[in-house]
From TrEMBL:
<feature type="transmembrane region" description="Helical">
    <location>
        <begin position="30"/>
        <end position="51"/>
    </location>
</feature>
<keyword id="KW-0472">Membrane</keyword>
<feature type="transmembrane region" description="Helical">
    <location>
        <begin position="63"/>
        <end position="87"/>
    </location>
</feature>
<protein>
    <submittedName>
        <fullName>Uncharacterized protein</fullName>
    </submittedName>
</protein>
<keyword id="KW-0812">Transmembrane</keyword>
<keyword id="KW-1133">Transmembrane helix</keyword>
Amino acid sequence: MPLYFHPHASLTLDVGLLLVFLGPGVPLNILLFVFLSVLVLVPCTVLSVYYLMLQSFVLLLEFILNAVLLCFYSLEMLLGIMSISAFSR
């Protein structure tokens, strides 16, 4: 009788995760994904500013949530640009 019984469904998941994590640590094409993320962030920011400033009826809660969203967008843009500059060296 084995000391530890591992279910087959969980075993396949564990082996799959093991194969994923045994790959390269940082993919070589990560610069492309970060660049695309920053590129997609621009229209999202424009639409958020439109919703915040140019729409006729905006509730106070929507204004606060949109301001928080713009703060997160600016943080994502800053981190994305820093990542692009760090990975491009």
